[in-house]
Amino acid sequence: MPIVEHENLPNKPLVEAILEIKWGQPNEPDSAYPVMVGRLYERVRDKYPAIEDLPITQIPPNMTVHVVRHRFRAADGQWPLVQIGPGVVALNDTENYTWPDFRARAMELHPQVKESHPNPGALQITSLKLQYIDAVEFDYNKADVRQFLKDKMHIALSVPNVLFEGKPITDQPTNTVVVLEFATGEPRGRAQLRVSTGKKNDMPAIVWHTSLWSDQGDAARAWADLEPWLEGAHSILHHWFFALIQGDLLEEFSRE
Q: 63 phi and psi, to 5 degrees?
């Protein structure tokens, strides 16, 4: 059965789209970080003028490597936004996301990050990740999540019935987490599918993360020429999304 893909769905289940860039190692604080915050803001403030300092700023930066501390938003409380912390920058968007807009913002951010570091030679990129978080409301407390995954997302989960025979235990899961990871060839890295029970708008939901990341040498090479990596990662994750929702969910998400 051919997979039907669309550029944008009117009722998409997207919670968040994220591009994450990391440099250095978790145990190696970047001494240039305080300077870089101001220099990056100077370069992005035309599009992201609203500054939001996160509570974690009360902790010294050298204790929060690869954890974001500041957000630069399009407007107060609005998306998209750029985040920065010691050794990490991220671009985030939510329900107004479209790929052409996100890609353009990512490519604009690429040189801005490079130019913001006072010592470009120390900006050794060690991880690049593109990630999508989607969710659909489903009360897994009243219905079997395994049946939903099989019928709606084409994911079959099963455990032997003998686990429940003669024991005081129900055979319906109250919590579910499934993680599958696969090597990718172009771009070189790993792609991951994570499906779990969770919340959407404070209601029980099925949440799925699709992500592709490259690390170490693969990340450094990708950072040197970001656009092919970005296009390749998006192509894989875009295909995964539509492969998972073919059928009833695609029809639901296509409604105006």
A: -100, 0
Query: How far apart are alpha carbons 39 and 123 in whole angstroms?
Result: 14
Q: What is the pLDDT of residues 32-87, one digit of tens each?
A: 899 999 999 999 999 999 999 999 999 988 888 999 999 999 999 999 999 999 99
Structure tokens given for 28: 């190696």
Structure tokens at 128: 């690049």
Domains and CATH numbers, the chain: 16-123 (3.30.310), 132-214+225-249 (no CATH)
Closest CA to 222 of 213, 235, 211: 213
